[in-house]
Amino acid sequence: MKDTPIKREIVDRKIIDNNIANVGKASIRVIKKLVDEIEKESGSRFVRMEMGVPGLPPAQIGVAAEIEALKRGVAAIYPDIQGIPELKQEISRFVKLFLDVDVNPVGCIPTVGSMQGGFAAFLLLNNLHEGKDTTLFLDPGFPVHKQQHRLMDLKFDSFDVYNYRGNKLRDKLESYLRKGNISCMLYSNPNNPSWICFTDEELKIIAEMADKYNVIIMEDLAYFGMDFRKDYSVPGQPPYQPTVAKYTDNWLLFISSSKAFSYAGQRIGMMVISDHLFNTKSERLIKRFTSNIFGNAMIFGTVYSLSSGTSHSAQYALAAILKAVNDGKYNFRNDVKEYGEKAHIMKKLFTENGFKIVYDKDIDQPIADGFYFTYSYPGFSGEELLKEMLYYGISAISLAITGSEKLEGMRACVSLVKRNQFPDLEARLQCFHENNPY
Ligand SMILES: Cc1ncc(COP(=O)(O)O)c(C=O)c1O
User: Fold this and answer.
1) Contact at 8 Å (CB) between 94 and 258?
2) Closest approach atom of ligand 1 to CA 269
3) Site to substitute for ligand 1 among 32, 53, 115, 189, most atoms within 8 A of C-beta
4) Is 298 in contact with 273 (CB distance < 8 Å)?
5) Which atom of ligand 1 is nearest the CA belonging to 268?
6) CA–centroid distance, residue 310 to ligand 1 (Å)
7) CA of residue 220 to ligand 1 center, whole Å
8) What's the helix, strand, coil split of the chain in %, to 5?
9) Ligand 1 and 52: CB distance under 6 A
10) Residue 259 Cα to ligand 1 middle (Å)
11) Ligand 1, atom 7: nearest CA belongs to which residue?
């Protein structure tokens, strides 16, 4: 056996110090803290792939607009809860120009990251109609959404969508929806963590089910335009980012500015509510959410209670970024396509050293290169692999915490890995492979 790049003793002790009973099941933030400490003590830099943070500088147009807004004094003033008018207008334009969908700016609401949008929507949608009190997740997915459900004591159900692609999706969805308790469905597209991308055929099926069973589709576009096989970045020109909103009125979108515009730190995202859903009435909402109109209940009952709106200066930043994108003056895809290029190289390093790509197919095509990829190693469960690879200075998360059925798998995020770390990554993977022949 070759010595591992990180002393086993340091990793084991830090796991105990952090009171982590099963490192393979630990949440992303717990792994992050653990690896920070191991790096400090060992003096060795990890190949860090656990957290989905942007690895690029923020969109500079946003930074400049935000500084300017702060200088004007907006920090002293409460922002409108529904969002500043210029931002609402630009969000509506963005939805038209990049999704080819019409929406009234009234339903375009800034939130404290998509994360807050999700929190608000889960709460409201599960209280909209009597008996409809359960969210259905099309997994694998982002673990924090389920944590939000636990926190609010809301019910959820889920299944791993990988084996139900294409036409098979209809029957699978119906098996859940016909029970009548599902209020809403959530999926991310491209998918975190598997990077599968729903086709228009699948989005039509999802829309058909939404209409048939009166279910709201929450489409999480955290990785907007980042299926790099296509170029969705030219305003007003096809191809458009595929969306369920083309095929039903029962939708609500989350568009994050964290990854597409590298603006995660300012915690600003967009919740976009279809005109139909915005105006949906339910007397059940009045008592807890102050209005019987869905959109008003969202703004004045929910977002108001959570944070009284979204950071004033960040709203000016996002308005400026979107305006530049909408006017065709800033192509965000050019900035972020580096993620796909890195993924391509990193996947090769893994597969050349005995690792397998877990979610390797997008129906009948190879999975695209993007922000995440998934891997496994014969003979290891994902939980075992996570721990074992810490000794090799490589950190990621286990797919087990994402609702995936692929319990042997791991999720790797490419964003924080610098190209100058690739030789290190290769040497560590080779060492792992030599020590674990199969
Ligand atoms: C699928 C998905 N949804 C939502 C989010 C959160 O986005 P935001 O930073 O806008 O809250 C993430 C972030 O990693 C994500 O991967």
Assistant:
1) no
2) 10
3) 115
4) yes
5) 10
6) 16
7) 8
8) 45, 15, 40
9) yes
10) 8
11) 114
Whether 391 and 23 have beta carbons less than 8 Å apart is answered as no
Atom of ligand 1 nearest to the CA of 188: 1
Nearest CA to ligand 1 atom 14: 52
Q: Which of 195, 256, 263 to mutate to test the pocket of ligand 1 (most atoms within 8 A of CB)?
A: 256
Q: Give DSSP secondary structure letters for 355-395.
A: -EESS-EETTEEPPPSSEEEEE-TT--HHHHHHHHHTTTEE
Architecture of the 8-56+332-435 domain: Alpha-Beta Complex (3.90)
Domain ranges of the chain: 8-56+332-435, 60-326
In order along its 438 residues, the chain shows pLDDT tens digits of 889 999 999 999 999 999 999 998 898 899 999 999 999 999 999 999 999 888 899 999 999 999 999 999 999 999 999 999 999 999 999 999 999 999 999 999 999 999 999 999 999 999 999 999 999 999 999 999 999 999 999 999 999 999 999 999 999 999 999 999 999 999 999 999 999 999 999 999 999 999 999 999 999 999 999 999 999 999 999 999 999 999 999 999 999 999 999 999 999 999 999 999 999 999 999 999 999 999 999 999 999 999 999 999 999 999 999 999 999 999 999 999 999 999 999 999 999 999 999 999 999 999 999 999 999 999 999 999 999 999 999 999 999 999 999 989 999 999 999 999 999 999 999 999 999 999
CATH number of this structure's domain 60-326: 3.40.640.10
Q: Is 264 in the pocket of ligand 1 (CB under 6 A)?
A: yes
397 Cβ below 6 A of ligand 1: no
Cα–Cα distance for residue pair 245/100, rounded to 1 Å: 9
Cβ atoms of residues 54 and 415 within 8 Å? yes
Q: How far apart are CA 407 and CA 400, in angstroms?
A: 5
Cβ(188) to ligand 1 under 6 A? Answer: yes
User: Residue 136 in 3-state DSSP?
Assistant: strand
- What predicted TM-score, i.e. pTM, was given to this entire model? 0.95
